[in-house]
Amino acid sequence: MTRKRISQVTPEEKNEIQTLFERKNGLNELARILTADNTELYERLVRDMGETGQRFQSWWDRMAGKYRWESAEGGHWEIDFDTCEIYLVTND
Question: Which range of residues forms the domain containing residue 28?
């Protein structure tokens, strides 16, 4: 696996994706323990997971367009929350 630094985002942009990342992870953890017995809560969780996933992907799409990030087939981007740096990760 290869990690190549390709860009950097602002602290505000980093905060936006970090909040979404933490929310997404929290919802995934909740999904692991919640059963479908409570239909209302389950439906709300599913809806929230979908909306958060869309907002998460939208951030990556927006930033990729704004900063014209390099991409690679089969690769993905990662952010270092400490430095705001963006990396292209490939399976080389």
Answer: 2-90
Residue the block writes with tokens 């981007």: 77
**What are the backbone dihedrals phi and psi of residue 76, each rounded to the nearest 5 degrees, phi first?**
-150, 165
Query: Tens digit of pLDDT per residue, the chain (92 long)?
Result: 999 999 999 999 999 999 999 999 999 999 999 877 888 998 999 999 999 999 999 999 999 999 999 999 999 999 999 999 999 999 98
Under 8 Å between Cβ of 43 and 59: no
The structural domain count of the chain equals: 1
Distance CA 82, CA 62 (A): 21
3-state secondary structure of 49: helix
Q: Could you give the CA distance from residue 49 to residue 51 in angstroms, rounded to a whole number?
A: 6
